[in-house]
Design brief:
8 strands, about 140 residues
Length: about 140
């Protein structure tokens, strides 16, 4: 999943931000970019264009969170909805199970899980205030 590159949209008018500087950090993000670019029901989209503050449970300090995507969609009902989308491996969305002995890998998983939960709570609150919906998409939703 550690594949990076630049994405060049074919429908650059739909992109909100600089369409010459769209960076993907995984093939899953790239797949979602292609979906947003080509799907006629996606009216506009952006990648890491919104900045949200969140308090890290690890150090107690304020940090900045850049959700992976902003998407404005025409639903099948005709309703227009706005979403913030985060793309993550399913493993990172589930609280790590406590092993028999604590390894560095386990401690890293706990740190990442706690950090993600704080980011996502901040995103949910931001969305609630603005009439957006926040979603975390994993390989299950992406069909990978």
């Amino acid at each position: 999943m550690a594949y990076k590159g630049k994405f060049q949209p074919s429908n650059s008018k739909k992109y909100k931000g600089d369409p010459t500087n769209i960076v993907y950090r995984s093939l899953w993000e790239r797949k979602f970019m292609v979906y947003c670019d080509k799907n006629e029901n996606v009216l506009e989209w952006g990648s890491e264009e919104i900045i949200l503050p969140y308090r890290s449970p690890v150090d107690g300090k304020m940090h900045r969170y850049f959700p992976d995507f902003y998407v404005k969609v025409k639903e099948s009902t005709g309703e227009i909805k706005k979403y913030l989308i985060e793309i993550k491996p399913k493993k990172q969305t589930i609280k790590p199970k406590v092993p028999k002995r604590q390894t560095k890998g386990y401690l890293y998983e706990v740190y990442e899980y706690a950090k993600n939960q704080a980011k996502w709570e901040s995103a949910r609150e931001w969305c609630l205030d603005r009439g957006y919906e926040f979603k975390v998409l994993t390989e299950d939703e992406l069909g990978i």
